[in-house]
Design brief:
Number of helices: 16
Strand order of the largest sheet: 3-4-5-6
Structural class: alpha+beta
Largest sheet: 4 strands, antiparallel
Amino acid sequence: MGSNLDNLFKDGYYLNDVSDGYVKSLAGFSLSNAMRAFFRTSVDLEYLRNAESINQSMSQKSKDKHHSGLYATDASDAISHYHHFLELFLKDILEKEHRLMAYDASKKPSILYKLVKGEHVNDDEIESLKMIEFSEAIERVAVLLRENKLDQKYAFLAGYIDVMKRVNTLRNRITHRGAFILRSQALDELFGVYLIPLAREIVPISDFSKILRWKFNLCNENIDPYGTIVNEYQQACPNTSNVHLMKLIGNAAYNNEINPDLDGILHHFYKEKREKAERMAIAEEHYLQSDRKKCPVCGCQTLVSVIDDYEETDENDNPKNFKQYVESIHCHQCGFELRSWMLNKIRSGAVQFNYIPQGFI
């Protein structure tokens, strides 16, 4: 028979204890999970984006059907994890002011008395209290900001109060009903206009800035997915294809487990993993009779092109010209992949990206 439920649910540990105070909550991890899920939606949408490139008059209903189940999962995860990140961050602000700002002790008079009097309250007593709802945390932070009660480093939050309220509503709709999914264009705009800029202001002043994998693991520092996406949505007509490309790069960078400094101190640590990916790329290069070059995301010689061909005919359908072209490229190490529809955008100049190796466009 299983363990007693009371004991089962108490059998855990506190992040603060096992990290010597270095990690106080899951806030940083939740933000990282939110961004991973957001960038992953780019891969989920490849079928839709290809279909749109073929049929530019596709109806909204048809587009909705092309949003995959994986997209629905990742889009919902992105919102839910970001909500969790915000909730923990705001409650931490309030708790630092006073525990009664973040906890409801109204039904625990003895603990309430200790908190009011400034007496010691142990972890078990705090654990017995309920924390306030996220909606209440937003309201309390908003009031304290209006009355200049909080440190000025939090002043920027005043411009995001409405956004946080709407994120809370959307998350509740997703969690409690589980039927509504934000369309991809709305999700991208939400993150590009509001959530990425908000996170970029929070991270530098947070307790979790040192543990958060916020900077992408990219071999090229000139490629900035966060900045490019934010800048696109500051334009009158954002280039959504460019946003999608940055999301594909961001997703691959999150999957990249090899440090871009391949000649540095960790060179031998990554050697086996890198060489395994290179062997796979070499095998495919020989099988497909294609090329293998340096990946612009991870920096490994593991980017392989897939060659296709077509035959031009004259007005009598007689063969005229036989041509080959790069149909897609993909990396065997980080998973970076561009398919024909995106390569065509780059070829035409509709998307500006100068980091594809020569011969792969």
